[in-house]
Q: What sequence folds into this?
């Protein structure tokens, strides 16, 4: 339909069509190259390269204030060489997979793997982060789907005049800035948070939520489900509007219960949307980061994205591990691709079958 | 942060109107500064703002922003607030300028003690010293007839006695939040036990007798703390004090003023200070000495540097110190040490005196490795030896990537 209109209005315009197409798509391809492809290639190259300053050792006299008098100490310090242009002289080396080995835990990981000592393996930052990130991602998924669908069904069946307010309230957690949302849940539970005080009064004990890894893990997952379920709700709610009413009515005539209608009519109809939300959620949750910051969970639980950020943050002396950060980022990307492989293949099969 | 900015904007607007009175000259050059956000910096930047055209940014993340901001050309800030821990990247990369000429021209009021010299050049002007030392509830100690502890073994005894009496929720507080804070706590204790962080060839030296002793002492102390100590930073400990929840902590001197802030504190006049405890008899107190001060960027025109330095001198004058005497252990002439300053002074003048924080490229990596790996010991996932081995491994990997180790 579209095509025939197009062709009749621009007869013999194959060249023009391509130009129009290019004019429309060109800017976004340029943007994608500039902001996605180029940084990705840079990160990829960086992960195989190490750039560091050339250091020299030099005797340095430093005087620091004490009370009344100064203390001057002379010591040999390792300091970077500054070139004629006033910049620090750096060298760049190709290191192969050294940065990947470093992120994965090097010899410590090898010996843990060789001895089948998973406890030791999980104490290495990367594996600790991978364990948590995977649990976090896969555990929250069914809750996001289930809760999203439940809210959608409830709202769909709600009386017309309260639909608006109910939708608004349901969407709120999704609208709130992630870190703020995480902080508000943290404040409910950490220290003498309101909920903690209630629980303490209820159970007559002294609780320290932030001193338990599993409690923090639970709160982080709870927060993620609370934050993302509205997204699933919006998508499902839209999907529910397109359910074939005739099919539903014939199901009712056939004596299908409310549950059977949901199970055999509505859910099959929503299947493509379920796959879509699954894809988005797997991608997002695997890159979890706000939770670690919001709940200060670094001592107990870290995510892969947090690990990359940690490598990238300069310390007080100004060192940052760019190569390890790049390797960590590449590994995260590989993880996302592996995770998405199954649902993507399913979509592809359905697409071809259709 | 927003509140800080708003407050600053307010202070700035206020400052502009009274500029003629409070500042000795009218500043026409735009001057920007980036510093930490604790009380002393608020006092100093407010005083600088009185000269007009000063934009002060107070940000606790300054340490990660400063190196890149000063490396830009022109530099994004004229004045940097640094400490002996955070000056290293600026010195290493040559992004701050020697101040000898400016000090000669405008620094008549500075004490010689304030001039930070590196290889003979004045690279920074210090304004205050800071250290983690013993703060304690003097009323509780008096009621229970306890002596103020001078060693960590005595700290444990006093903590046990206070717990027995049940007067506070937790006898001890500590800045043990995972990351920078817990690493700093370990650095204090490790130096107290006489350890060496790294050897002359940059290889790590942390997995030693001193390392294990330091970890074991820290763990013994945690028995008397709020179990949530791994999320407890300086502000958290300060609030625990202010709300009367703890009786002792080895806390930053710069937090002392807040104990007597009537708007926040329920323990005004009840907190005393003493020297940081000693870990092993004969050693220096288990803490490190710090100074805070200002530096001027290298990548700015000389006129702007001159204006920035003059503004900074106004911020560091006697008038500012008199108005904000309790906010820090000032090095600026005119400072009257108060009750709260006694702890810091006792710490710094003890014999032998604690070393200042060893600020080097290696130490930066070591601090990060400690901050990331130590929590596993306190959550019980790893033994002390395993933890220290993990720290050494993390340090070695990072040092190789940074080019410090081959």
A:
């Amino acid at each position: 339909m579209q095509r025939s209109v197009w062709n009749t209005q621009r007869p013999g315009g194959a060249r023009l069509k391509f130009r129009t197409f290019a004019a429309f798509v060109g800017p976004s391809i340029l943007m994608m190259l500039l902001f996605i492809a180029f940084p990705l290639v840079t990160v990829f190259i960086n992960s195989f390269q190490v750039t560091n300053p050339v250091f020299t050792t030099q005797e340095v006299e430093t005087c620091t204030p004490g009370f009344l008098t100064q203390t001057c100490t002379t010591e040999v310090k390792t300091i970077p060489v500054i070139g004629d242009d006033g910049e620090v002289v750096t060298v760049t080396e190709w290191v192969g997979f050294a940065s990947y080995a470093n992120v994965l835990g090097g010899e410590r990981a090898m010996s843990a793997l060789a001895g089948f000592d998973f406890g030791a393996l999980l104490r290495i930052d990367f594996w600790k982060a991978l364990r948590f990130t995977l649990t976090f991602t896969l555990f929250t998924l069914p809750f996001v789907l289930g809760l999203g669908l439940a809210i959608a069904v409830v709202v769909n069946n709600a009386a017309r005049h309260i639909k608006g307010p109910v939708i608004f309230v349901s969407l709120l957690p999704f609208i709130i800035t992630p870190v703020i949302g995480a902080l508000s849940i943290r404040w409910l539970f950490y220290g003498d948070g309101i909920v903690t005080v209630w629980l303490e009064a209820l159970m007559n004990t002294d609780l320290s939520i932030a001193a338990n890894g599993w409690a923090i893990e639970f709160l982080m997952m709870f927060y993620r489900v609370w934050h993302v379920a509205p997204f699933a709700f919006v998508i499902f709610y839209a999907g529910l509007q397109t359910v074939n009413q005739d099919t539903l009515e014939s199901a009712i005539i056939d004596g299908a219960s409310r549950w059977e209608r949901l199970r055999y009519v509505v859910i099959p109809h929503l299947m493509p949307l379920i796959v879509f939300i699954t894809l988005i959620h797997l991608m997002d949750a695997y890159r979890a980061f706000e939770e670690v910051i919001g709940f200060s969970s670094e001592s107990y639980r870290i995510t892969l994205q947090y690990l990359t950020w940690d490598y990238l943050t300069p310390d007080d002396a100004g060192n940052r591990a760019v190569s390890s950060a790049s390797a960590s980022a590449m590994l995260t990307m590989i993880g996302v691709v592996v995770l998405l492989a199954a649902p993507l293949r399913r979509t592809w099969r359905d697409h071809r079958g259709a | 942060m927003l509140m800080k900015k708003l407050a600053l904007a307010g202070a700035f607007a206020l400052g502009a109107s009274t500029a003629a009175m409070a500042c000795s000259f009218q500043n026409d050059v735009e001057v920007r500064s980036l510093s930490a956000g604790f009380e002393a910096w608020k006092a100093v930047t407010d005083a600088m703002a009185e000269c007009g055209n000063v934009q002060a940014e107070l940000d606790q993340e300054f340490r990660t922003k400063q190196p890149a901001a000063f490396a830009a050309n022109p530099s994004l800030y004229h004045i940097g607030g640094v400490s002996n821990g955070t000056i290293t990247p600026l010195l290493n990369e040559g992004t701050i300028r020697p101040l000898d000429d400016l000090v000669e021209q405008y620094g008549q009021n500075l004490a010689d003690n304030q001039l930070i010299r590196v290889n003979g050049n004045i690279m920074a002007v210090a304004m205050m010293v800071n250290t983690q030392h013993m703060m304690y509830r003097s009323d509780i100690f008096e009621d229970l007839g306890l002596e103020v502890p001078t060693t960590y073994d005595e700290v444990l005894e006093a903590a046990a006695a206070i717990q027995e009496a049940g007067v506070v929720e937790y006898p001890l507080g500590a800045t043990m939040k995972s990351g920078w804070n817990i690493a700093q706590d370990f650095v204090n204790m490790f130096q107290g036990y006489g350890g060496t962080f790294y050897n002359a060839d940059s290889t790590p030296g942390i997995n030693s007798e001193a390392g294990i002793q330091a970890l074991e002492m820290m763990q013994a102390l945690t028995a008397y703390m709020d179990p949530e100590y791994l999320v407890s930073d300086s502000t958290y400990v300060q609030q625990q004090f202010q709300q009367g929840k703890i009786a002792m902590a080895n806390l930053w001197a710069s937090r002392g003023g807040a104990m007597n802030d009537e708007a926040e504190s329920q323990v005004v006049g009840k907190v005393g200070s003493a020297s940081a405890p000693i870990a092993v008899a004969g050693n220096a107190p288990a803490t490190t000495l710090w100074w805070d001060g200002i530096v001027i960027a290298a990548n700015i025109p000389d006129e702007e540097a001159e204006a920035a330095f003059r503004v900074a001198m106004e911020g560091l004058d006697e008038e500012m110190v008199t108005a904000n005497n309790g906010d820090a252990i000032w090095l600026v002439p005119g400072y009257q040490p108060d009750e709260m300053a006694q702890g810091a002074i006792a710490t710094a003048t003890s014999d032998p005196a604690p070393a200042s924080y060893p600020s080097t490229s290696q130490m930066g990596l070591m601090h990060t490795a400690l901050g990331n790996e130590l929590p596993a010991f306190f959550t019980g996932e790893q033994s002390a030896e395993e933890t220290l081995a993990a720290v050494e491994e993390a340090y070695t990997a990072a040092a190789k990537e940074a080019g410090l180790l081959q």
